[in-house]
Amino acid sequence: MTAAALAKPGLSPIPRTQLWWEAVERGELLIQRCASCGSYQFYPRVLCTRCWSEDLGWVQAIGSGRIWTFTVVRMPGHAAWAPDVPYVIALIELDEGPRMMSRVVDSDPREVRVGQRVRVNFRRLSPSESELPVFVVDAADGP
Amino acid sequence: MNLRGQAAIVGVAELPPQRVTPGYTTLEMIARVSRLALIDAGLEVGTIDGLMVGPQVGETPQHVPATIAEYLGLQPRFADIVDLGGATGAGMAWRAAAAILSGMATTVLCVLGNTRDPQIVPRSPNRNPIREFDVPFGASGANQAYAMVAQAHMHEFGTTSEQLAHVPFRQRENALRNPAAVFHGKPITVDDVLASPLVMEPLHLLEVVMPCGGGAAFIVTSADRASGHRPPIHLLGAGERVTHRALSQAPNLTTSPMAGAISAAYATARVTPGELDLLSIYDCYSIVVAITLEDAGICPKGEGGAWVADNDFSPNARLPINPHGGQLGMGQSDLAGGMGHIVEAVRQLRGEASDRQVPSAELALVTGNGATLSEEVALILGSSR
């Protein structure tokens, strides 16, 4: 089987996160906010990791943040991504605090740096793939 | 209750890591290495009344301790799984001591083993947060996570690839003294490491452990019973921290939970870093050694890169590190690779490490690291109580 024919691992929502993935399809990045202690969190959970309250609500993230760390993938962990290399995966620290895995797109991988300001965008990484929240480096913080 | 000096390791064994293990099952690997540990301890099989094993052994997803006990002909009073990734072996050591102290068992066999067939890539059917929120972005496997840790360390402290390349170089030099190492007889240079392919920037192929099949085992008993034909090696201190699974949820990228685990181990043992004769520290990737040295107080935070570039790791060094070659030099037999750091420390503290013996080694720090600096265990082992 050639790498191109290998299917990429798709989405695997659970009942609680269905709504989050539907929001991504609409171009919205949701995070959870605890009504009890006010802290934000991602990924979505059934309780607040800070105070264990179950009184959680969804809010739309501002959508801006910074690159906490990243790597340029040359040899992917799964052969299905071989056609994509080199690509940038990054841990994004949202301005609300929570961190998430994502892609940095539209930048030359050689120009990506820890600490760069980024903004969320919504893309299908290839036509057959689902919409994902990815990040673009702010023009003011580019190379 | 303080664990200090209450239990001792009286037997150790290891199967040399192999790139492939044709004809063997996991149960067979476990049985072979268990037998060798029992012989090393000079004990009768009937004395083993406790058993600790790893998770999902081979094709046995459930009832793992019972399956292994039955295969070995043991009927333990206490049997359990430890599931701490690369820290599993170290995690077993202080659990065994605690079980003995509390009367659950008197003599505990701790064993890990695996087979390897490159044609079979183990893929677990995960439906967990990493599968849902990391994998769709093309982020899968350990390499990407450790590359991100190295990237953060470089950004924060100016650590360089050339500095980190000294870790596999120095460990390979140590492996040249160890006939059991998969890289025995295969020297490399710092330039070789830097010239090896980039896997995930800034990680080069030679900064990553080589997956192997193999096994390791040790036997723990109470310090009072520990009078076999080999010198008992005492558990003087231990500490553990478990903070996250997905790297996005890590409290910090460049200070690991190892820091808390090691300081707890120091406190229990009442030792300071300057008193250590030997480090047998987990080394799945070059960056892990640099961060562990910082978190162990061997050098200040941020100076791990400079430290590994400037300091010898050999048995005659001021502070020898992984004289067996570490997992970067030995090859990584899955969870048993981490247990190998205990086996090596015990051999060194007994004075039985032949060509790679560290002179007058009496006190060692052993670490285990699981997932991505996520589940961490530190042990202080000593040749006297």
Can you tell me about this structure?
The complex is a heterodimer of chains A (about 140) and B (about 375). Chain A is built from one helix and eight strands; from the N terminus they run H-E-E-E-E-E-E-E-E. Chain A has one helix spanning about 20-25, and strands at about 30-35, 40, 55-60, 65-75, 85-95, 100-105, 115-125, 130-135. Chain A has a five-stranded mixed barrel with strand order 4-5-6-8-7. A three-stranded antiparallel beta sheet of chain A has the order 2-1-3. Chain A is globular. The termini of chain A are far apart. Chain B is an alpha/beta fold. Chain B has helices spanning about 25-40, 65-70, 90-100, 130-135, 140-155, 160-165, 165-175, 190-195, 260-270, 285-295, 305-310, 325-330, 335-350; strands at about 5-20, 50-55, 80, 105-115, 200, 205, 215-220, 235-240, 280, 365-370, 375-380. In chain B, the strands form two sheets. Chain B has a nine-stranded mixed beta sheet, sandwiched between helices. Chain B is globular, with a radius of gyration of 19 Å. The model of chain B has no long low-confidence stretch (mean pLDDT about 95). The chains are: A mainly beta (about 140), B alpha/beta (about 375).
In short:
The complex is a heterodimer of chains A (143) and B (385). Chain A has 143 residues and is mainly β.
Shape of chain B: globular
Judged by helices, strands and strand pairing, the structural class of chain B is: alpha/beta
Distance between the termini of chain A: 40 Å
Report the uncertain regions of chain A: none
Largest interface: A-B, 40 and 35 residues
* Helix-strand makeup class of chain A: mainly beta
